[in-house]
Amino acid sequence: MNPSAESDAPATGGGSGSTNGGGGSGGNGRSGRAPYDLPAVLDIAVAAFNDYGYDATSMGLLAERLGTSKSAVYYHVSSKEDLLRLALERALGELEGILTQPGATDGAADERLRYVLRGAVKVLVEELPYVTLLLRLRGNTELERDALARRREFDNAVSALVEEARDAGTLRADVDARTTTRLLFGMINSIVEWYKPGGSLTQDQLADDVITVAFDGLRVHGAR
């Protein structure tokens, strides 16, 4: 059976605070073991969505990866879509939050752009599985389409910063602002495919490298 075809309806109404697990498990079906809280369930769900794809990940598969029962998963959420909603809100909320910080709202446009790009790298590294999930959305559901629309709004805000910096004469004006934005985020978004947290390349160094390539390029100054 296709795992995505499995019903996501809770067996006993589930949702918030029901005690479906029993057996001294605190309602999460993990008798004798430390209970999962919602953040832990969400982390494992996001990993499964990234491994198998959201559509192909059933609640039964999530329960198997958690080592618990489906009813225990429903103790925390009412559906698989709830998990996706929480995961996307975590990624998008962090990205959107960058735009409201003083470094993104005060000062010269090029400095604000640097701040936003550095912040985007920071969010990507710190929330790597969640941003990976966001970047892999296909727009198959209304929830996914809404998330993609919010992501476009973030990109549009960056494009506006690029245009403002161009008008101020601090960025070159011979490249279209939207093209510049796509290239910048193409570089940043590719990090999810190769970056390994905990390695020799730190988050700060990675952000420095992205900013250097974006604003200064690769050519040695003065070289022919």
Describe this structure in words.
The structure is a single chain. This protein has two domains: 26-78, Arc Repressor Mutant, subunit A (Orthogonal Bundle), CATH 1.10.10; 87-216, Tetracycline Repressor, domain 2 (Orthogonal Bundle), CATH 1.10.357.10. The chain is built from eleven helices and no strands. The N and C termini lie far apart (62 Å). Residues 1-34 have low confidence and may be disordered. The protein is mostly helical and 224 residues long.
Total strands: 0
Gyration radius, rounded:
21 Å
- Helicity range: 55-70%
CATH architecture verdict of the largest domain: Orthogonal Bundle
Catalogue the unreliable spans: 1-34
Beta strand %: under 5%
Overall tally of structural domains? 2
| CATH T-level fold name of the largest domain | Tetracycline Repressor, domain 2
- Please provide the ordered H/E string of secondary-structure elements: HHHHHHHHHHH
- CATH class wording of the largest domain: Mainly Alpha
Number of helices: 11
Q: Report the CATH superfamily of the largest domain.
A: Tetracycline Repressor, domain 2
Question: Could you tell me the mean pLDDT?
Answer: 86
Major sheet: none
